[in-house]
Amino acid sequence: MSPIVATATLEFVAAKSTPALLLKRAITKGDVTHALTPTHDQKIVLIVICVYALAILVLWHIPYLKVILLPFKLVTVALHEFSHAAAGLCTGARINSIAIDPDEGGLTRMTGGKWCCVMPAGYLGSSFLGALMVFAGFNVLASKIVSVMIGVCLLATLFWAKNWLTRVITVLFVGLIVGLWFTPHGTGLRYVVLFMGVMSSLYCLWDIVDDTLCRKVNESDATKFAQKTHCSSRCCGFIWLLVSLVFLVGAILLGVAFLKDDPAL
What we know:
265 residues, mainly alpha, two-stranded antiparallel ribbon, 2 strands, 73% helix, 5% strand, transmembrane helix, membrane, transmembrane
């Protein structure tokens, strides 16, 4: 083969081997179908997610039984406030305090920080953490790793806590996480992490809808963000709602696609 022909052949092969074409060849329709087809164990997890969601929605609207969900709601509020604090800390703020009140509300006080990062971080951060727990629920090892992350978040919340309710809730759930590590094969930890993930995701979605789309709450994060950006609070809430939905759906799809085999089982 002459040098000219060889050079032309190499250029042709290089042109055909761009990253996009290589990716297209590597991932076929069959690969995607196989990745998104749940295994027997994953089907059980998907059923459990649906049962959790249905149970939460039912208990949510029953006057006396909804007290069962109260501790989990308060943990979700703690994660919401931690997300504000974490965003503030990352943007140079000094965190003064975190408090949770009996009406399931929370307040994070800080000095400094970037408001454009801190205000959306409550809803989006806690919904991301919820989605992360749902993703981890497909695998025992992943659940253990994420439980450590959630434990660190709660300990940070405890460090900034300025009222007894916040302290008690965070200590109880850190203790619960530690205790569940000793259940056989970590199964108890896995399903509690999954429940907390579903609870956190649904609570964030409901809170966004309730505070911004159904009724306008003057002290909500979306209202304050809207005042800063001169945008509609409902528009902000709708965008945050979509992002939270993407987190939840993405967590389920990624869990099915990437956590096929559970080495702990």
